[in-house]
Design a protein that fits this description.
The chain has about 300 residues and is of the alpha/beta class. The protein has 2 domains: about 230 residues, Rossmann fold (3-Layer(aba) Sandwich); about 60 residues, Histone, subunit A, CATH 1.10.20. The protein is about 55% helix and about 10% strand. A 6-stranded parallel beta sheet has the order 3-2-4-1-5-6, with helices on both faces. Strand 2, helix 2 and strand 3 form a beta-alpha-beta unit. About 35% of the residues are buried.
Length: about 300
Protein backbone atom coordinates (compact mmCIF):
# COMPACT_ATOMS: atom_id res chain seq x y z
CA UNK A 1 0.00 0.00 0.00
CA UNK A 2 1.32 3.49 -0.81
CA UNK A 3 2.63 5.63 2.03
CA UNK A 4 1.29 9.12 2.80
CA UNK A 5 3.82 11.02 4.90
CA UNK A 6 3.45 14.55 6.22
CA UNK A 7 6.58 16.53 7.15
CA UNK A 8 5.58 19.67 9.01
CA UNK A 9 7.01 22.27 11.35
CA UNK A 10 8.16 25.88 11.48
CA UNK A 11 10.15 27.61 8.77
CA UNK A 12 13.92 26.97 8.57
CA UNK A 13 13.81 23.43 9.98
CA UNK A 14 14.93 21.77 6.74
CA UNK A 15 11.58 20.34 5.66
CA UNK A 16 12.29 20.91 1.95
CA UNK A 17 15.60 19.05 1.83
CA UNK A 18 14.42 16.27 4.13
CA UNK A 19 11.32 15.72 1.99
CA UNK A 20 13.43 15.65 -1.17
CA UNK A 21 15.84 13.05 0.23
CA UNK A 22 12.98 10.92 1.51
CA UNK A 23 11.17 11.20 -1.83
CA UNK A 24 14.31 9.95 -3.60
CA UNK A 25 14.46 6.88 -1.36
CA UNK A 26 10.73 6.11 -1.51
CA UNK A 27 10.21 7.12 -5.15
CA UNK A 28 7.56 9.50 -3.87
CA UNK A 29 6.02 12.69 -5.20
CA UNK A 30 5.88 15.85 -3.10
CA UNK A 31 2.79 17.91 -2.32
CA UNK A 32 3.78 21.38 -1.15
CA UNK A 33 1.67 22.73 1.69
CA UNK A 34 3.19 26.21 1.77
CA UNK A 35 0.86 29.09 1.00
CA UNK A 36 3.69 31.24 -0.44
CA UNK A 37 5.35 28.62 -2.65
CA UNK A 38 2.28 28.54 -4.89
CA UNK A 39 3.49 31.74 -6.60
CA UNK A 40 5.60 31.54 -9.76
CA UNK A 41 7.62 34.74 -9.60
CA UNK A 42 9.22 34.93 -6.14
CA UNK A 43 12.18 32.58 -5.81
CA UNK A 44 14.40 34.04 -3.11
CA UNK A 45 12.05 35.45 -0.48
CA UNK A 46 9.87 32.32 -0.53
CA UNK A 47 12.86 29.91 -0.34
CA UNK A 48 11.61 28.02 -3.38
CA UNK A 49 13.17 24.54 -3.76
CA UNK A 50 16.21 24.67 -6.09
CA UNK A 51 15.74 23.67 -9.71
CA UNK A 52 17.61 20.36 -9.36
CA UNK A 53 15.03 19.22 -6.78
CA UNK A 54 12.10 20.31 -8.92
CA UNK A 55 13.54 18.50 -11.95
CA UNK A 56 14.33 15.26 -10.15
CA UNK A 57 11.20 14.83 -8.00
CA UNK A 58 7.67 15.88 -9.04
CA UNK A 59 6.59 18.78 -6.80
CA UNK A 60 2.92 19.77 -6.82
CA UNK A 61 1.58 23.22 -5.85
CA UNK A 62 4.91 24.98 -6.35
CA UNK A 63 4.80 27.97 -8.70
CA UNK A 64 1.30 27.33 -10.01
CA UNK A 65 -0.11 30.88 -10.08
CA UNK A 66 1.08 34.45 -10.60
CA UNK A 67 1.46 36.95 -7.77
CA UNK A 68 -1.25 38.91 -9.58
CA UNK A 69 -3.78 36.19 -8.73
CA UNK A 70 -5.58 35.56 -5.46
CA UNK A 71 -5.56 32.11 -3.93
CA UNK A 72 -7.23 30.86 -0.78
CA UNK A 73 -7.31 27.79 1.40
CA UNK A 74 -10.49 26.47 -0.23
CA UNK A 75 -8.83 26.57 -3.69
CA UNK A 76 -5.93 24.61 -2.25
CA UNK A 77 -8.17 22.14 -0.41
CA UNK A 78 -10.11 21.12 -3.52
CA UNK A 79 -7.01 20.61 -5.69
CA UNK A 80 -4.73 19.08 -3.07
CA UNK A 81 -7.28 16.48 -1.94
CA UNK A 82 -7.88 15.44 -5.55
CA UNK A 83 -4.16 15.25 -6.37
CA UNK A 84 -3.36 13.16 -3.28
CA UNK A 85 -6.22 10.75 -3.99
CA UNK A 86 -5.14 10.43 -7.64
CA UNK A 87 -1.51 9.70 -6.72
CA UNK A 88 -2.56 7.22 -4.04
CA UNK A 89 -4.83 5.38 -6.48
CA UNK A 90 -1.89 5.19 -8.90
CA UNK A 91 0.13 3.44 -6.19
CA UNK A 92 2.50 6.38 -5.65
CA UNK A 93 4.07 7.22 -2.30
CA UNK A 94 3.25 10.79 -1.27
CA UNK A 95 5.08 13.31 0.91
CA UNK A 96 3.16 16.39 2.01
CA UNK A 97 5.69 19.03 3.02
CA UNK A 98 5.05 22.46 4.48
CA UNK A 99 4.47 24.81 7.35
CA UNK A 100 1.13 26.39 6.48
CA UNK A 101 -0.93 24.98 9.32
CA UNK A 102 -4.33 25.69 7.81
CA UNK A 103 -3.34 24.06 4.50
CA UNK A 104 -2.22 20.96 6.40
CA UNK A 105 -5.40 20.93 8.48
CA UNK A 106 -7.80 21.05 5.52
CA UNK A 107 -6.05 18.11 3.87
CA UNK A 108 -6.28 16.08 7.06
CA UNK A 109 -9.68 17.15 8.36
CA UNK A 110 -11.49 18.69 5.41
CA UNK A 111 -13.49 21.89 5.52
CA UNK A 112 -16.56 22.00 7.71
CA UNK A 113 -19.52 23.45 5.86
CA UNK A 114 -22.33 24.11 8.32
CA UNK A 115 -25.81 25.40 7.52
CA UNK A 116 -26.16 29.06 6.61
CA UNK A 117 -26.72 31.51 9.45
CA UNK A 118 -30.32 31.97 10.54
CA UNK A 119 -30.67 35.51 11.87
CA UNK A 120 -33.98 34.82 13.64
CA UNK A 121 -32.59 31.80 15.46
CA UNK A 122 -29.41 33.68 16.31
CA UNK A 123 -31.40 36.56 17.81
CA UNK A 124 -33.41 34.08 19.86
CA UNK A 125 -30.23 32.48 21.21
CA UNK A 126 -28.75 35.87 22.01
CA UNK A 127 -31.94 36.76 23.90
CA UNK A 128 -31.61 33.56 25.91
CA UNK A 129 -28.02 34.50 26.71
CA UNK A 130 -29.14 37.92 27.86
CA UNK A 131 -32.09 36.66 29.93
CA UNK A 132 -30.72 33.45 31.43
CA UNK A 133 -26.94 33.93 31.38
CA UNK A 134 -24.03 32.11 29.79
CA UNK A 135 -24.28 28.98 31.97
CA UNK A 136 -27.78 28.28 30.64
CA UNK A 137 -26.62 28.14 27.00
CA UNK A 138 -23.48 26.22 27.91
CA UNK A 139 -25.49 23.56 29.75
CA UNK A 140 -27.72 23.23 26.68
CA UNK A 141 -24.62 22.69 24.52
CA UNK A 142 -23.27 20.08 26.97
CA UNK A 143 -26.56 18.22 26.70
CA UNK A 144 -26.74 18.08 22.89
CA UNK A 145 -23.03 18.03 22.00
CA UNK A 146 -20.74 17.18 24.94
CA UNK A 147 -17.70 16.74 22.66
CA UNK A 148 -17.91 20.33 21.42
CA UNK A 149 -18.64 21.64 24.92
CA UNK A 150 -15.32 20.16 26.11
CA UNK A 151 -13.46 22.27 23.53
CA UNK A 152 -15.24 25.59 24.09
CA UNK A 153 -14.85 27.95 27.03
CA UNK A 154 -18.07 28.85 28.86
CA UNK A 155 -17.25 32.50 28.10
CA UNK A 156 -16.95 31.96 24.31
CA UNK A 157 -20.51 33.05 23.54
CA UNK A 158 -19.97 33.31 19.78
CA UNK A 159 -18.87 29.69 19.35
CA UNK A 160 -21.51 28.36 21.76
CA UNK A 161 -24.27 30.12 19.82
CA UNK A 162 -22.91 28.86 16.48
CA UNK A 163 -22.73 25.26 17.77
CA UNK A 164 -26.32 25.46 19.02
CA UNK A 165 -27.41 27.07 15.76
CA UNK A 166 -25.89 24.24 13.69
CA UNK A 167 -27.65 21.63 15.82
CA UNK A 168 -31.06 23.35 15.77
CA UNK A 169 -30.91 23.88 12.00
CA UNK A 170 -29.57 20.47 10.97
CA UNK A 171 -30.36 18.14 13.86
CA UNK A 172 -26.71 17.05 13.82
CA UNK A 173 -24.13 18.13 16.46
CA UNK A 174 -21.34 20.30 15.07
CA UNK A 175 -18.77 17.74 16.32
CA UNK A 176 -20.37 15.09 14.08
CA UNK A 177 -20.53 17.53 11.15
CA UNK A 178 -16.81 18.15 11.51
CA UNK A 179 -16.12 14.41 11.74
CA UNK A 180 -17.95 13.91 8.45
CA UNK A 181 -15.91 16.62 6.68
CA UNK A 182 -14.07 15.35 3.62
CA UNK A 183 -10.53 15.14 4.98
CA UNK A 184 -8.03 12.34 4.38
CA UNK A 185 -7.02 11.54 7.97
CA UNK A 186 -9.49 8.67 8.38
CA UNK A 187 -9.40 7.63 4.73
CA UNK A 188 -5.71 7.08 3.99
CA UNK A 189 -2.79 5.54 5.97
CA UNK A 190 -1.18 8.82 7.06
CA UNK A 191 1.86 9.41 9.27
CA UNK A 192 2.69 12.97 10.37
CA UNK A 193 6.20 13.95 11.43
CA UNK A 194 7.08 17.33 12.90
CA UNK A 195 10.62 18.72 12.80
CA UNK A 196 11.52 20.48 16.03
CA UNK A 197 14.50 22.65 16.96
CA UNK A 198 15.42 24.39 20.17
CA UNK A 199 14.15 27.97 19.95
CA UNK A 200 17.65 29.54 20.01
CA UNK A 201 18.90 27.41 17.12
CA UNK A 202 15.71 27.99 15.14
CA UNK A 203 16.01 31.75 15.46
CA UNK A 204 19.69 31.63 14.50
CA UNK A 205 18.79 29.65 11.38
CA UNK A 206 16.09 32.17 10.50
CA UNK A 207 18.53 35.06 10.88
CA UNK A 208 21.11 33.31 8.68
CA UNK A 209 18.50 32.52 6.06
CA UNK A 210 17.40 36.15 5.82
CA UNK A 211 21.04 37.26 5.44
CA UNK A 212 21.44 34.73 2.62
CA UNK A 213 18.28 36.02 0.93
CA UNK A 214 19.71 39.52 0.80
CA UNK A 215 23.03 38.17 -0.53
CA UNK A 216 21.17 36.30 -3.30
CA UNK A 217 19.27 39.41 -4.43
CA UNK A 218 16.11 39.73 -2.34
CA UNK A 219 16.01 43.51 -2.89
CA UNK A 220 16.18 43.16 -6.67
CA UNK A 221 13.52 40.43 -6.61
CA UNK A 222 11.12 42.58 -4.59
CA UNK A 223 11.79 45.51 -6.97
CA UNK A 224 10.56 43.32 -9.83
CA UNK A 225 7.55 42.10 -7.86
CA UNK A 226 6.48 45.63 -6.91
CA UNK A 227 6.18 46.49 -10.61
CA UNK A 228 3.44 43.88 -10.86
CA UNK A 229 -0.14 44.25 -9.65
CA UNK A 230 0.25 42.13 -6.52
CA UNK A 231 -2.82 40.36 -5.15
CA UNK A 232 -3.81 40.82 -1.52
CA UNK A 233 -2.53 37.35 -0.67
CA UNK A 234 0.82 37.81 -2.45
CA UNK A 235 1.42 41.08 -0.61
CA UNK A 236 1.58 39.05 2.62
CA UNK A 237 4.82 37.30 1.61
CA UNK A 238 7.40 38.17 4.26
CA UNK A 239 10.01 40.41 2.69
CA UNK A 240 7.78 42.45 0.41
CA UNK A 241 6.66 45.05 2.96
CA UNK A 242 10.04 45.24 4.67
CA UNK A 243 12.00 45.76 1.46
CA UNK A 244 9.34 48.11 0.07
CA UNK A 245 9.77 50.29 3.17
CA UNK A 246 13.52 50.36 2.49
CA UNK A 247 13.07 51.21 -1.19
CA UNK A 248 10.72 54.06 -0.31
CA UNK A 249 13.24 55.48 2.15
CA UNK A 250 11.16 54.80 5.26
CA UNK A 251 13.85 52.60 6.85
CA UNK A 252 17.51 51.91 6.13
CA UNK A 253 18.97 48.71 4.69
CA UNK A 254 19.97 47.14 8.02
CA UNK A 255 16.57 47.95 9.51
CA UNK A 256 14.87 46.19 6.58
CA UNK A 257 16.89 43.05 7.30
CA UNK A 258 16.15 43.21 11.01
CA UNK A 259 12.43 43.68 10.36
CA UNK A 260 12.40 40.69 8.01
CA UNK A 261 14.21 38.56 10.59
CA UNK A 262 11.85 39.65 13.35
CA UNK A 263 8.71 39.04 11.29
CA UNK A 264 9.96 35.61 10.22
CA UNK A 265 10.68 34.70 13.85
CA UNK A 266 7.17 35.80 14.82
CA UNK A 267 5.79 33.71 11.96
CA UNK A 268 7.76 30.67 13.17
CA UNK A 269 6.41 31.18 16.68
CA UNK A 270 2.84 31.14 15.34
CA UNK A 271 3.60 27.96 13.39
CA UNK A 272 4.93 26.26 16.53
CA UNK A 273 1.83 27.27 18.49
CA UNK A 274 -0.44 25.92 15.74
CA UNK A 275 1.29 22.55 15.35
CA UNK A 276 1.65 21.99 19.11
CA UNK A 277 -2.13 21.64 19.30
CA UNK A 278 -2.19 18.68 16.90
CA UNK A 279 -1.62 15.52 18.92
CA UNK A 280 -1.35 13.41 15.76
CA UNK A 281 2.11 14.81 15.02
CA UNK A 282 5.10 12.62 15.90
CA UNK A 283 7.88 15.06 16.77
CA UNK A 284 11.55 14.59 15.88
CA UNK A 285 14.13 16.69 17.70
CA UNK A 286 16.55 17.62 14.94
CA UNK A 287 19.20 19.63 16.81
CA UNK A 288 22.60 18.54 15.48
CA UNK A 289 21.12 16.25 12.80
CA UNK A 290 21.74 16.54 9.07
CA UNK A 291 18.84 16.28 6.62
CA UNK A 292 20.07 12.82 5.69
CA UNK A 293 19.98 11.73 9.35
CA UNK A 294 16.48 13.19 9.77
CA UNK A 295 15.38 11.29 6.68
CA UNK A 296 16.74 8.04 8.12
CA UNK A 297 14.98 8.69 11.44
CA UNK A 298 11.67 9.14 9.61
CA UNK A 299 12.21 5.90 7.68
CA UNK A 300 12.79 4.04 10.97
CA UNK A 301 9.45 5.27 12.27
CA UNK A 302 7.37 4.40 9.22
Amino acid sequence: MPKVIFIVGPTATGKTETSFLLAEDLKAEIISSDSMLIYKEPQIITSKPPSYMLKKIPHHFVGIISVKDTYNVFDYYLKAIKKIKDLFNQGKNIIVCGGSGLYIKVILDGIFEGPAKDENLRRELQERLKNYGRDYLFEELKRIDPQTAKKISVSDHKRIIRALEVYYLSGIPISEKKRQANGLWRRLPIKIFGLRLKRKELYERINRRVEEMFEKGAVEEVCRLLKMDLSITAEKIIGIKEIKDYLEGNIDFEKAKEEMKKNTRHFAKRQITWFKKDKRIEWIDIDGLTSCEIKEEIKKRL
